[in-house]
Amino acid sequence: MDLSSGRKDYRIRLEIFPQGASVEVNPLFSVFRNLPPVIDGKLDDWKGIPSISLDREDFGSATGMPVSEENNPNSALIYTGWDNDFFYFAAEVTDDKFNQPYTGDKIWAGDSIQMGFDPLNNAEEGNGYEKDDYEYTLGLTDKGPEIYGFHDEGKADEAKTKEIKLMIRKEGNKIYYEAAFPWSARASFIPAAEKGEAMGFALAIMDNDGEEHTQKWLALGDGITNGKDPCKFKKMFFIRRD
Ligand SMILES: [Ca+2]
Ligand SMILES: [Ca+2]
Ligand SMILES: [Ca+2]
Ligand SMILES: [Ca+2]
Questions:
Q1: By three-state DSSP, how is residue 162 classified?
Q2: Which of 16, 36, 186, 188 is buried most deeply by CB count within 10 Å?
Protein backbone atom coordinates (compact mmCIF):
# COMPACT_ATOMS: atom_id res chain seq x y z
CA MET A 1 0.00 0.00 0.00
CA ASP A 2 1.16 3.50 -0.69
CA LEU A 3 1.56 5.69 2.38
CA SER A 4 2.78 9.25 2.27
CA SER A 5 6.05 8.18 3.88
CA GLY A 6 6.78 6.01 0.87
CA ARG A 7 5.88 2.62 -0.45
CA LYS A 8 5.81 -0.14 2.07
CA ASP A 9 4.68 -3.74 1.98
CA TYR A 10 2.86 -5.39 4.83
CA ARG A 11 2.66 -9.06 5.60
CA ILE A 12 -0.70 -10.37 6.77
CA ARG A 13 -0.96 -13.72 8.44
CA LEU A 14 -4.11 -15.69 7.73
CA GLU A 15 -5.23 -18.48 10.01
CA ILE A 16 -7.40 -20.96 8.19
CA PHE A 17 -9.42 -23.32 10.31
CA PRO A 18 -10.35 -26.86 9.26
CA GLN A 19 -14.11 -26.29 9.56
CA GLY A 20 -13.94 -24.21 6.39
CA ALA A 21 -14.67 -20.90 8.08
CA SER A 22 -14.54 -17.96 5.72
CA VAL A 23 -11.44 -15.81 5.83
CA GLU A 24 -11.39 -12.03 5.51
CA VAL A 25 -8.82 -11.07 2.90
CA ASN A 26 -9.78 -7.44 2.43
CA PRO A 27 -8.53 -5.80 5.61
CA LEU A 28 -8.41 -2.16 6.59
CA PHE A 29 -5.28 -0.42 7.80
CA SER A 30 -5.06 2.31 10.40
CA VAL A 31 -1.82 4.27 10.65
CA PHE A 32 -0.22 5.52 13.88
CA ARG A 33 -0.43 9.31 14.27
CA ASN A 34 2.66 10.97 15.64
CA LEU A 35 0.75 14.23 15.56
CA PRO A 36 -2.85 13.80 16.67
CA PRO A 37 -5.56 15.55 14.63
CA VAL A 38 -7.37 18.50 16.17
CA ILE A 39 -11.03 17.51 16.65
CA ASP A 40 -12.57 20.58 15.06
CA GLY A 41 -14.49 19.18 12.06
CA LYS A 42 -11.84 20.51 9.68
CA LEU A 43 -10.04 17.70 7.90
CA ASP A 44 -6.92 19.54 6.72
CA ASP A 45 -4.97 17.63 9.38
CA TRP A 46 -5.79 14.34 7.57
CA LYS A 47 -3.90 15.24 4.40
CA GLY A 48 -1.55 12.43 3.37
CA ILE A 49 -3.53 9.76 5.25
CA PRO A 50 -4.88 7.07 2.90
CA SER A 51 -8.67 7.37 2.73
CA ILE A 52 -11.34 4.73 2.21
CA SER A 53 -13.83 5.77 -0.44
CA LEU A 54 -17.47 4.70 -0.25
CA ASP A 55 -19.85 5.25 -3.11
CA ARG A 56 -22.61 3.53 -5.05
CA GLU A 57 -20.96 0.13 -4.82
CA ASP A 58 -21.31 0.28 -1.05
CA PHE A 59 -24.97 1.29 -1.12
CA GLY A 60 -27.46 -0.80 0.83
CA SER A 61 -31.12 -0.41 1.68
CA ALA A 62 -33.69 -2.10 3.91
CA THR A 63 -36.18 -2.29 1.06
CA GLY A 64 -33.67 -3.61 -1.45
CA MET A 65 -34.21 -0.53 -3.58
CA PRO A 66 -31.66 -0.36 -6.39
CA VAL A 67 -29.35 2.60 -6.75
CA SER A 68 -30.86 5.24 -8.99
CA GLU A 69 -30.82 8.99 -9.47
CA GLU A 70 -33.98 9.18 -7.33
CA ASN A 71 -32.60 7.58 -4.20
CA ASN A 72 -29.32 9.44 -4.55
CA PRO A 73 -27.02 7.60 -2.18
CA ASN A 74 -24.30 9.59 -0.49
CA SER A 75 -20.62 9.20 -1.15
CA ALA A 76 -17.96 9.46 1.52
CA LEU A 77 -14.26 9.51 2.29
CA ILE A 78 -13.28 7.81 5.55
CA TYR A 79 -10.06 8.32 7.50
CA THR A 80 -8.78 6.54 10.59
CA GLY A 81 -5.69 6.79 12.77
CA TRP A 82 -4.55 5.94 16.26
CA ASP A 83 -2.02 6.53 19.00
CA ASN A 84 -1.63 5.10 22.47
CA ASP A 85 -4.56 7.10 23.81
CA PHE A 86 -7.12 7.38 21.03
CA PHE A 87 -8.63 5.86 17.92
CA TYR A 88 -9.16 8.76 15.52
CA PHE A 89 -11.88 8.91 12.91
CA ALA A 90 -12.87 11.39 10.23
CA ALA A 91 -15.38 11.32 7.40
CA GLU A 92 -16.27 13.66 4.59
CA VAL A 93 -19.81 12.79 3.55
CA THR A 94 -21.39 14.22 0.41
CA ASP A 95 -25.17 14.31 0.76
CA ASP A 96 -27.71 16.03 -1.50
CA LYS A 97 -30.16 16.63 1.35
CA PHE A 98 -29.31 16.88 5.03
CA ASN A 99 -32.01 15.66 7.43
CA GLN A 100 -31.36 14.91 11.10
CA PRO A 101 -34.40 15.74 13.25
CA TYR A 102 -33.62 13.09 15.90
CA THR A 103 -31.70 12.87 19.14
CA GLY A 104 -30.47 10.22 21.63
CA ASP A 105 -31.12 6.60 20.68
CA LYS A 106 -32.96 7.67 17.49
CA ILE A 107 -30.03 9.46 15.85
CA TRP A 108 -29.54 6.48 13.52
CA ALA A 109 -32.89 7.28 11.82
CA GLY A 110 -31.56 10.55 10.40
CA ASP A 111 -28.33 11.45 8.60
CA SER A 112 -25.69 9.88 10.83
CA ILE A 113 -22.85 7.39 11.07
CA GLN A 114 -23.21 4.14 13.00
CA MET A 115 -19.83 2.71 13.99
CA GLY A 116 -19.24 -0.76 15.40
CA PHE A 117 -16.13 -1.79 17.33
CA ASP A 118 -15.01 -5.30 18.27
CA PRO A 119 -11.76 -4.24 19.97
CA LEU A 120 -10.71 -7.75 20.98
CA ASN A 121 -11.54 -9.11 17.52
CA ASN A 122 -13.14 -12.14 19.14
CA ALA A 123 -16.63 -12.22 17.64
CA GLU A 124 -18.35 -15.59 17.54
CA GLU A 125 -21.16 -16.41 15.21
CA GLY A 126 -24.64 -15.94 16.64
CA ASN A 127 -23.54 -14.07 19.78
CA GLY A 128 -24.21 -10.51 18.62
CA TYR A 129 -22.48 -7.86 20.69
CA GLU A 130 -20.41 -9.18 23.59
CA LYS A 131 -18.80 -7.47 26.60
CA ASP A 132 -15.97 -5.75 24.71
CA ASP A 133 -18.06 -4.62 21.74
CA TYR A 134 -19.50 -1.15 21.33
CA GLU A 135 -21.54 0.72 18.81
CA TYR A 136 -21.70 4.49 18.52
CA THR A 137 -23.97 6.66 16.40
CA LEU A 138 -22.73 10.12 15.50
CA GLY A 139 -25.10 12.81 14.29
CA LEU A 140 -25.41 16.55 13.89
CA THR A 141 -28.67 17.10 15.79
CA ASP A 142 -30.59 20.27 16.58
CA LYS A 143 -28.62 20.32 19.86
CA GLY A 144 -25.29 20.13 18.00
CA PRO A 145 -22.90 17.20 17.50
CA GLU A 146 -24.22 14.23 19.45
CA ILE A 147 -23.03 10.69 20.07
CA TYR A 148 -25.07 7.77 21.35
CA GLY A 149 -23.33 4.63 22.55
CA PHE A 150 -24.64 1.19 23.36
CA HIS A 151 -23.28 -2.28 23.99
CA ASP A 152 -24.47 -5.77 24.90
CA GLU A 153 -26.43 -4.59 27.94
CA GLY A 154 -28.05 -1.54 26.38
CA LYS A 155 -27.05 2.10 26.64
CA ALA A 156 -23.33 2.62 27.17
CA ASP A 157 -22.05 4.37 30.29
CA GLU A 158 -22.80 8.05 29.64
CA ALA A 159 -19.76 9.36 31.47
CA LYS A 160 -17.50 7.20 29.29
CA THR A 161 -19.34 8.17 26.13
CA LYS A 162 -18.76 11.81 27.05
CA GLU A 163 -15.01 11.15 27.01
CA ILE A 164 -15.26 10.73 23.24
CA LYS A 165 -14.30 13.95 21.47
CA LEU A 166 -16.59 14.77 18.58
CA MET A 167 -17.12 17.58 16.11
CA ILE A 168 -19.51 17.55 13.16
CA ARG A 169 -19.63 20.43 10.72
CA LYS A 170 -21.91 21.02 7.76
CA GLU A 171 -20.77 23.05 4.77
CA GLY A 172 -22.84 23.08 1.57
CA ASN A 173 -23.60 19.49 0.60
CA LYS A 174 -20.75 18.15 2.78
CA ILE A 175 -20.91 16.90 6.36
CA TYR A 176 -17.56 16.61 8.11
CA TYR A 177 -17.26 14.23 11.07
CA GLU A 178 -14.18 14.11 13.27
CA ALA A 179 -13.84 12.10 16.47
CA ALA A 180 -11.33 10.73 18.97
CA PHE A 181 -12.35 7.60 20.89
CA PRO A 182 -10.23 6.99 24.00
CA TRP A 183 -9.21 3.33 24.10
CA SER A 184 -10.17 3.41 27.77
CA ALA A 185 -13.80 4.26 26.94
CA ARG A 186 -14.36 0.71 25.74
CA ALA A 187 -12.59 -2.49 26.75
CA SER A 188 -9.12 -1.68 28.02
CA PHE A 189 -7.45 -2.24 24.69
CA ILE A 190 -4.44 -0.59 23.12
CA PRO A 191 -3.42 -2.18 19.85
CA ALA A 192 0.00 -3.79 19.74
CA ALA A 193 0.92 -3.17 16.12
CA GLU A 194 4.09 -5.21 16.35
CA LYS A 195 2.01 -8.27 17.26
CA GLY A 196 -0.20 -7.75 14.22
CA GLU A 197 -3.22 -6.94 16.35
CA ALA A 198 -6.46 -6.25 14.59
CA MET A 199 -9.84 -4.91 15.68
CA GLY A 200 -13.23 -5.70 14.21
CA PHE A 201 -14.66 -2.52 12.70
CA ALA A 202 -17.61 -1.58 10.54
CA LEU A 203 -19.70 1.46 9.85
CA ALA A 204 -22.85 2.54 8.08
CA ILE A 205 -23.43 6.07 6.87
CA MET A 206 -27.17 6.50 7.13
CA ASP A 207 -28.81 8.74 4.53
CA ASN A 208 -32.15 10.37 5.30
CA ASP A 209 -33.43 12.66 2.56
CA GLY A 210 -36.78 13.44 4.20
CA GLU A 211 -38.21 9.99 4.96
CA GLU A 212 -39.60 9.28 8.43
CA HIS A 213 -36.80 6.79 9.13
CA THR A 214 -33.89 6.32 6.81
CA GLN A 215 -33.96 3.09 4.81
CA LYS A 216 -30.62 3.50 3.04
CA TRP A 217 -26.96 3.72 3.82
CA LEU A 218 -23.38 3.33 2.64
CA ALA A 219 -21.67 0.44 4.39
CA LEU A 220 -18.07 -0.35 5.23
CA GLY A 221 -18.24 -3.97 6.32
CA ASP A 222 -21.50 -5.56 7.39
CA GLY A 223 -23.14 -6.49 10.69
CA ILE A 224 -24.66 -3.14 11.65
CA THR A 225 -27.81 -2.43 9.64
CA ASN A 226 -29.13 -5.96 9.06
CA GLY A 227 -28.87 -7.20 12.65
CA LYS A 228 -25.94 -6.65 14.97
CA ASP A 229 -23.23 -9.16 14.12
CA PRO A 230 -19.57 -8.28 14.75
CA CYS A 231 -18.61 -11.52 12.94
CA LYS A 232 -19.36 -9.61 9.75
CA PHE A 233 -17.20 -6.61 10.62
CA LYS A 234 -14.01 -5.93 8.70
CA LYS A 235 -10.59 -6.49 10.24
CA MET A 236 -8.67 -3.32 10.88
CA PHE A 237 -4.91 -3.70 11.32
CA PHE A 238 -2.96 -1.10 13.26
CA ILE A 239 0.36 -0.16 11.73
CA ARG A 240 3.16 2.21 12.62
CA ARG A 241 5.19 4.27 10.23
CA ASP A 242 8.92 3.77 10.61
CA1 LIG B 1 -9.22 18.49 12.36
CA1 LIG C 1 -28.84 11.72 0.21
CA1 LIG D 1 -15.79 -8.80 20.83
CA1 LIG E 1 -29.38 12.93 3.68
A1: helix
A2: 186
Contacts of 172 (CB under 8 A, 6+ apart): none
CA 88 / ligand 2 centre spacing (Å): 25
Cβ count near 175 (within 10 Å)? 25
What pLDDT does 106 receive?
A: 97
Q: Residue 5's closest CA among 49, 66, 53? A: 49
- Residue-range domain boundaries for the chain: 25-239
Query: What's the CA-to-centroid distance between 134 and ligand 3, angstroms?
Result: 9
Type of residue numbered 118: D
Model pLDDT, residue 10 = 54
Which ligand number lies closest to the CA of residue 117?
3
Class of domain 25-239: mainly beta
Which segments of the chain have a pLDDT < 50? Answer: 1-8, 24
* pLDDT score, position 181: 95
86-94 vs 174-182, strand pairing mode: antiparallel
